[in-house]
Structures are given as structure tokens and as C-alpha cells.
């Protein structure tokens, strides 16, 4: 595990972008799996600037790792929440070809891990961490560590579901789909980003505490090639050295 | 995960040997981590025959993954149990140079993971599984998943300790040392071997059940490049396909 | 470079098979590029026995590296010479699925290197060597080292063409297609096999002499992970140690 | 081969630095081989800023690839020309530990390729190109392509020797030492940088012309993972696309 604590969100975002570009600049197919959310926003500003319309990055294929299809009250499907975010953050402003954009969805999730495998596996996977310890859409107690992919039925058994459904403005979701631990640990280089003091506790727990399905993000301790990049606040409570 | 169920112990041993030779036959440094015990005995017969005095395998370095130092009642250290076994099974009959033999011990265990790292990491790790679900010397409830290496104090808190000490014929051990999950999951190719019907239940549980520190071997489900080779009996209860 | 001189053709064939199986036994997509010809015949006997109907090898995809389409005097295309050979030697007896069989031909040769690239590259490439120093269908002076793939017009400028056309029993060929040095050097592990005393001189020249387009096989000296396996006769004149 | 033509020397230097950081940011030993000379000067400014005193880069080991020992007229050895340059450009300002600095010299050149091999090989190698087509210290007609390392006796048979000796201000050199093609092609990622219009012709010739020992840099066409980064002037005459 390598831990890089940058002085602020700007520096953390630039550094993350450079690591991505380092991989992408190789002269062979490179498969990159990307996260949506708030944390990578500034990173995508830099990445779009570097990648937009650059033909020398056409060796790169992009993948998403989770999806929550949203439906209107009438049951009409609205484009997946995650795909919409990723398109707005990166795919559209960077003009990424559709043939190089691979989105997990309710129609392909069962074969998505195999699609990745047949393309040579993920060279790089970028993930965030939730304040509740979630990683991708592996929510606490909603998935285990022993599958490549999960379909999670959204019921009120999950304490976070009510609030999530409320956030959809009258629409609703019935399932979430996500790559699981077995897929995440296959990525050749895993990069976790986190910023803000509200992430400091969970990050410490995930990286320095026991490995447990109650804190899904704790699985990343088992990744053979993990780099964690934070701003000064999210990394403030870490006591780990980089050994191991 | 790839599961190979061979028709008998002989076929399983040959197949395992061939996989090892496949890696070792590359033209670059190859680091191989080997298991002692009963399961690999026949495999070592084949390996010794292929490797003995062959200068073209001098690119290979060998590592062990655990050790239990044994002491006489007077406190004199007898050579480590695991090293003694490995030397008898492989290192002596195959004439492996000392400079290519790297044994974990009570004096180097803290830096052993780093020694492996500095040598480019393990290309291949061969492990067995205990009927109690142990892997390397990660005994049930004696280690967690979040360290590279463990020193386990042998006390009667562990239900298996009394019997173990009895097996030492008047001698005793105070500590066991073993690579942990974080090291095992770093090997580029992990091979688990198992034979005999007494391994069928635990193998099914480890490969198809939940991932839990109560069954340390269950961690291998998370390995990105895992091959399991069994005879017909140990593999008899597996229902897994090879997908994932 | 690693050089393995076995005691006879049988031992060389078995050893080569074991190296292939070692790679194929990994738990991820493995791309293997195979040679036809006389040299690998016995190796395919062993390989077919190990691979036939084994579902645990369905992670393997197979590629060919050259082709010479043959035409009747009336201009009707007969199945490619190389594909026919490979099917007889391996693909048919081993029951390899068509979806896992990728043959270079006159219709796909321009995009074949890219097809390989998009599938993650070749993990293993098995080649022979001709008495004239050819490798794949890179004949002396018919190709250079600076392309991924070549279409070679078969004219009598090439001293070997007349004899080749004669061997086709009244049929004829107008072009040969072959992966070139740039593709061959991309394979992650390159294995050259040679047997018989008639190969001893050219093997020595290719491995120990200058690197030159006059001896196309000499290019393999530049491969970063090359294993050469011979019987006692083909390897008899090599003076190289395995260093480097 | 990937070709990246940046808008100027500043952009090319930054981009090169980012690729290096991308590799170095992995959580495992990373071996980087660096070039001295004029071309990488600005790149080192950026690299020093990113690397200086950063404990999270202590997984990186640095290597040089050539050396020309310099002697006073009295025969007293002055520190190697290349080591001195690299120390001034990078090792001293970035405070790189001596234990992580590996310089090729007249005393270790014969075992230097093996030292690299035993450390897991080079993950990244950064090279420039000379106007005469040299790469590392492989000068035209002074080395071939078939060795890991060369000791080149500096005699006036080489047309460039007189001028070189003159540049040493009354001192002299008798030998140059350099990694050869076989070592250069083993690096897992090879990056060539070039700037200025005086490099445009030779770069085109090296990348698009025949592969020949008369233009030693032409060997890089054979590298399986090559990235070329130039400013607008050095890349101005390239007609290559990035395919292949």
C-alpha cells in the first residue's frame, strides 16, 4: 500500500490525474475503470484537458463499475445514474468514442466481469470511499466479498434506502448493480481517492482496521498494488507508514 | 478462479509440477514460494527429477512461507520444522544453491515480505489447505487478514496447541511465523493443491463459502489469479464452475 | 535467453508441452500463438491429450501467425495451408471451439495485429526455425524487421519460390502473409523449438551470430523473454550460456 | 508505438514527468532507468519538485545506462561523466538515497544487466536520441544489437572520437560503457524524448526507416511498449500514425 497525502484537494486531483496519464501513455491497450461522485470532480477537469481529442489515447478503453437504474413513477427507465454522471464529468467533455466506453448496467452486469476479463483485465481502477465505508456500490452489509458482481435489491431493510429513494425526486430505483470484491481485487493497480475531513475517520478505519464486510472498503487492504491519494484533511488521521 | 480436478493423486501431482515448470522456464528471474507437508510429496518427486542439476533453472529463487522453530527441553533451538521438511522434500535432492534458497524464520520474518518485494515479488506461490481451514500457518482465529506477516504465540488458548506440542516428542515451540493474507494475495499466480476425501468438505467451504478469518483459506477466493488442483476425492464436492 | 537442450525429440516435445500448460493453467484469459510444421508434431500429441475436452482451459484463445492461401489452376481458393495443418495437428483433435480459434488470413492480416492487441496481447508464442533462417513466414530477404505484418508477393525473385510452387501439386500461391518482427517481439514469452542435426548450424547462427534481416530468426535474440528448446542434435553446436 | 507530439518543450517535459510519476506511484518496487543530457533538463525540474523528500517514493530504484570515465593527463580518474550529470540534474536536488542509486561504471558493467534482472527488471527506461542516431552510448557502428552491455574502446577509428576527446579540456577517456539493444528492449516501458528541429530528421529516420546498426536508435521500433514524446519541432517530420 502506498499512501500519498497531498496538501489540498487541488494537488490531490492533479496527482491522481498524472497517475492515470502515466498508465494511459503506454503503447498497448489500457483498460481504465472510473468512479463518478464528488471526489474526482477536479481530477476530471485535468483529465479532460489532457485527453480531449488526443488520438494518441485511443488505446484506452473506459469502464464503469456500478449502476443504479432510475424509473419514473410510471416505470419508465431514466438513464442510469452513474452513467449520466460519468458522461457529464468525463466522457462527453473528453469526446470519448462510444466504442471505447463500457458501462455496467442491469442488462449486462452478469457478463460484465467476463467482458473485462476477455479484454485483458483492468489495468487501473479508480475508486472513492463513502462515509459509511462503501466502495463502488458495495454498501455495508448489502454485499459480501465472494462475488465478482452483485445485484442488490433496494428494500427498506437497508437503513440508507429511504433517504436514497427520497433523493430521486419522485422517481425510484429497485436494484443497484456493482462489481464486487473479487472484481475490484483483480485490477492491476487500484487507486483510492478521498478528500475532506468527513472522510478522515472512515479512511483510517478502512485502511488500518480489520477487514470486514461491515466496512466494504476495508477489502482494499488486500489489494496487491494499492495507492491511496488524499488531501490533507481526509488523510489526517492515518498513522500507517507505506511499508506493506 | 480455475479449478482442475484430476483423476488421482498422481495426475494431480504431475499437473502441478508442469505448472511450476511452465513459470520457471521463462528467461528472467522467477520467484517461487513453496509448501511443505504431505500433499505436495509426489509433486516434489517430479519436480526434483526435472530441476536437479539443470543450470537452465538458475534463474529461479525459492522461498518458504512459514516456520515453527523447535526447542529442546533445555531451550536449544533445533532447525525449523518447515525448513527441515522443505530441504528433505526438495532443496537437498534437487541440489538447490543456498543463495537461491530463502527461508522465513524467527530472525527475518519482519523483513521477509520486504525482501520478497525488493526481489520483484513472488511469481508463483504453492499452498495447501488444512482440514481446519488453515493456509500457510494462518490457523483459524490465530491471525487476521490485515498483515503481511504474523508471529503467533503458541498458547493453550488455541485448541490445537496441546496436540501440536505433544507431536514434538518432548521438544516444544513457542511461536509460529507465517506470511499473512496481504502477502499471499500479492503472489502473481497462486496455486492451491489438495488431495484425499478428508479435504473435500473444507475445500468446498473455503472456495464456495463466505470469506472469513474463521476459515483462513477462504481468503484465496480474493486472489486475482488462482488455480486449484485436486485429485478426484478432494474436489468431489465442488459445484463451482470456473467462471470468475 | 534461456536455452534448454533435451536428450531427444521426445523429451523436448514433452518439455515444450509443459511450458504451454503452465501458462494456460492461469485463471485469466491466455492468448497462445502456435506454429505448424514438422517440429511440433509430437508436442501436439501431448498437448491434445492434456487439453481435449477440458473445460478448465476455456480461458485460452489460440492464434496462428502466418498463412499461404493456395489456389487451384482455375483460381479457386483452397483452405490456407497453415490453417489446414494446425487444424489437423491440434484444433480438431483437441476439439477447440471456433470462437477460440483465430487464424491469420489474406482477408484479416492487416487488422490481425490490432485484434491481438485488443485482446490483451499474446502471452505465449511458439515458433520454429527454418534451415534457411526463416521464422514464421519471414523468409530471408523477403521481409524486414520494421512491420507488424507482411504480405509477401511470391515471385521468382525469391530463389525458394519455384520449389515451393512445385510442392503444391499443380496448385499455386500468389502471396504469403506473416506476422513480422514487431509482432513477434511483443509476445510476452517467446518459445523457439528445433530438432534434428539439420537445424544445428542455423540455430547457432541465429542465436549467436549478428542480428540481420538475412537471417530473420536472428531477431529473436532481441526478445526480452525467450526460451529455446532443442533436442540434443539441434542444440549440439550452441556455445552460449544462459546469461543474458 | 505511441507518438506524442506536444506543443513545446515545456509541455513535453511535463508530460514525460507525469508518465514517470504514474509508474512510480505504484505500491511495489519500481526500477527506473534515466538519461542525462540536454533533452531531459526541464523534465528533471518537474521531477525533482515532485519527488524531493517524498517518503512515498522510496519504492523506486534508479539506474543509469551508460558511463564514460574521464582521466586527467596524469591518469587520475575523475568521476564518470554520466554519473556527474545525473547527480546534478536529479539525484542531488531530489535527495535520492545512495542505496536507491545504481550507476553503471567500468567496475560493474559486466554484471550490471544481471543486477537489474535480479531486481525484477526495469519498469521504465527513459532515453534520448543523438543527431547521429545514437541511443544510450550505442554510437553508430560502435556496437551491434546482440549484447546486453558493451565496452567501447575509444579510438580514432570512430570519426566522433577526436571531437569528444577535445571536449574534455585536457583530460581523456579510453572506454565508454553502455547497455546494448538486448538490455534496452527488456525495459517494460521505453520512453524516448526528443526536442528541437535538429532532431527532426534523425527521429524520422529512426522511427520510420529500416532497423539498422548504422542508426542504433532504430532498434526501438522493435520495443513492445514504446512511447515517443517530442516537442513540435522534433516531431515535425513524422508521418507515422500510432497504429503498431
Automatic annotation (TrEMBL), chains A, B, C, D:
Superkingdom of the source species: Bacteria
InterPro entries: Glc/Gal-6P_isomerase, GlcN6P_deaminase-like, Glucosamine6P_isomerase_CS, NagB/RpiA_transferase-like
Gene3D superfamilies: 3.40.50.1360
Domain Glucosamine/galactosamine-6-phosphate isomerase, chain residue ranges per copy: 12-222
Keyword set, alphabetical order: Isomerase
Isomerase as UniProt keyword: yes
Presence of keyword RNA-binding: no
Gene Ontology MF annotations: glucosamine-6-phosphate deaminase activity; isomerase activity
GO biological process: carbohydrate metabolic process; N-acetylglucosamine metabolic process
The protein, known as: 6-phosphogluconolactonase/Glucosamine-6-phosphate isomerase/deaminase
Lineage: Bacteria, Pseudomonadati, Pseudomonadota, Gammaproteobacteria, Enterobacterales
